[in-house]
Amino acid sequence: LNVSQSYRTAYHFQPTKNWMNDPNGPMYYKGVYHFFYQHNPYGPLWGNMSWAHAISHDLINWVHLDIALVPNEPYDINGCFSGSTTILPNGEPAILYTGVDANLHQVQNLAFPKNISDPLLNEWVKWPLNPILSPPDEIDPSFYRDPSTGWMGADGEWRVVIGTRIDHQGAAILYKSKDFRSWNRSLSPLHLSNITTFWECPDFYPVMRNGKSGLDTSVTSVQGKDIRHVLKASFNYQDYYILGKYDPLSDRYDVDADFMKSKGWLRYDYGRFYASKSFYDGEKKRRILWSWVCEGDTAPDAIEKGWSGLQTIPRSIWLSKNEDQLVQWPVKELEKLRTRKVHLENKKLKGGSMIEISGITASQADVEITFSFSNLKHAEVLSAEVVDPQILCTQKNATTDGKFGPFGLLVLASKDLTEHTAVFFRVFRIANSFRVLMCADTSRSSLKPFIDKPIYGAFLALDPRYAKISLRTLIDHSIVESFGGEGLACITSRVYPVLAVGEQAHLYAFNNGTQSLSISSLSAWSMKKAQIV
Ligand code: DQQ
């Protein structure tokens, strides 16, 4: 086996070959999940942007269909860029996407299914009156893209937002329409912020204050005191979000705190994760999030592999109990792929020790582990309240011993640990409270040259005196997706081992702190291959 072929995944969504980036227009329609994505049909690098299309009954096993949109009209000849789907009141789904026209201007276009009674929606027809929106005079035509899914306002009119920049600020401009075909720009953007100069792929949706159910925005306006609204924007190679109160009549959006201003700079994922998009799943009444996970290897590597880019496992997403952040968890359907289980309980992990978790395929696994300690009195003291968790993870990496931690998992590890990716926690004390740091350290993940091997970090918003620290990690050959504290913080990485490949990959639980702790429970499964045909 050529090692470059070992990086293909077994249960993450991928085309059979070539380039993939942003998720586009995911939806649930007449019993079928649809997924579109930015795709280059002709090669493993970005270019010839098209909307490729796949369908599923469970979000895990997929069938690739024909490409839905290719750049072949004057208004999209330089690319069919990202966009969204909206299900209109007559039950018809519409694609709203960005075209890059012959002058390299970004414009917005519509497409509809050729045959509405085909549940697979295999063929799409571009609207004859495209483009339906061109950049307003004061907006730079190369920064005007990625229309969101439409939502219904209190006046019965549709709204969408488009990512742009206004006066050198990142912005989501708002448009309104009665029929989804002719649109008027609202005087004020939904939101703008000087923290960055340009936004891509804005997403805007309601979440409930109690419970995990999602909300449908395409029927009637969703409002009330038990509803909060999330605005996500993609910039700086990361997906940030804010929470606030939205009035569906005036379109006023009062945010709790602006981007990168709230505690911990709220992000969906503190690793490699970009241009995500959510949709409402009417079958299971939940909101689901998809995201592109780009490569950390080089263009020549992509050419050798013949492909580039992964999608995360779709995640359910909802508002936390404290209502100050979102929580994510891989869709339940993934668990159908679990096979060969190992389980242990109440296993002591002394300071400076490690155990191997054997009996599963460590290169293709799902692991859930929960830790507990008797007494945190001797936790390391952290002086400043405000620190960047990524810097903290870099200074205090998995090999630097502390008191409570570093403890966690070594995944995709070679037997002698020459290669490994560490996903771990450290507990700090700040005055009378505690702070839990979650890290993913890929710095020793590969002996291959020219690989990007970052150390990622996030704070886990839980109090370790009352809540156990848990970790779920999805390992799939070249991707590691980790969920700390039952989804309070997520970190996704890409890794390219050359030793820890296939059956040569090992999995360990470790404690490099001086204080001992216990694994209150650990369950790990080998994962079957998803059917992606
Ligand atoms: N990717 C698309 C754009 C979008 C960017 C082009 C984000 O529409 O802004 O492939 O990754």
UniProtKB/TrEMBL annotation:
Pfam name, any one: Glyco_hydro_32N
An MF annotation (GO) of this entry: hydrolase activity, hydrolyzing O-glycosyl compounds
UniProt-listed InterPro entries: ConA-like_dom_sf (IPR013320), Fructan_Metab_Enzymes (IPR050551), Glyco_hydro_32 (IPR001362), Glyco_hydro_32_AS (IPR018053), Glyco_hydro_32_C (IPR013189), Glyco_hydro_32_N (IPR013148), Glyco_hydro_beta-prop_sf (IPR023296)
Domain of life: Eukaryota
Keyword Transmembrane belongs to the record: yes
Domain Glycosyl hydrolase family 32 C-terminal: 333-526
Keywords: Glycosidase, Hydrolase, Membrane, Transmembrane, Transmembrane helix
Domain Glycosyl hydrolase family 32 N-terminal: residue ranges: 12-330
Statement: the UniProt record of this protein carries the keyword Lipid biosynthesis: no
EC number, UniProt record: 3.2.1.-
GO biological process terms on file: carbohydrate metabolic process
Family: Belongs to the glycosyl hydrolase 32 family.
UniProt name for this protein: Glycosidase
